[in-house]
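Researcher: Please translate sequence to structure tokens.
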Amino acid sequence: MMTTNEIVAFLQAVPTFKGMSSEQLKALAEVCEVKTFSMGENIFRQGDVGGAMYIVVEGRVVLERELKNKNDTISMNEVKSHGYFGEISLFHEAPRSVTATVFTETKILRVDNDDFTAFLRQYPDLLVKLNQVLSERLLEAYDKISEMTQYKKPRELRKLYDKLDF
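Model: Translation complete:
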């Protein structure tokens, strides 16, 4: 287990939380639940109901998205120490868009949505930083989509191809 002071010290090194006061970090640390997962264990699966954000203390978590045919997945991201995932569920109540699988034994901090919402009401300046992170991740997703589709036909050729009657 980690003490509140250990969690505060750890959170100070997470880029999104840098610049927060000791009081703010302590309040955040108090709503964190420390959890340990074994290699290969799922933290959550695609389609599960959200409800928490996760901050990696040590270890690695792979985020994968199941493709439409359900027989294949694509790796979306790998999250290491001081990184976090699941933050979209803090703002949008929708099923999880990826599966989070532990790559090596991993210790995380779990922050429940309701606790985090109460924290943000006290310290709304963190919303600006989270908005920046979400925007960056959206741009990364656009890049990944572009990379995955770069070998597809251009839009004009696709329209012509679709008009062909075989």
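Researcher: Any highlights?
Model: The chain has five helices and eight strands.
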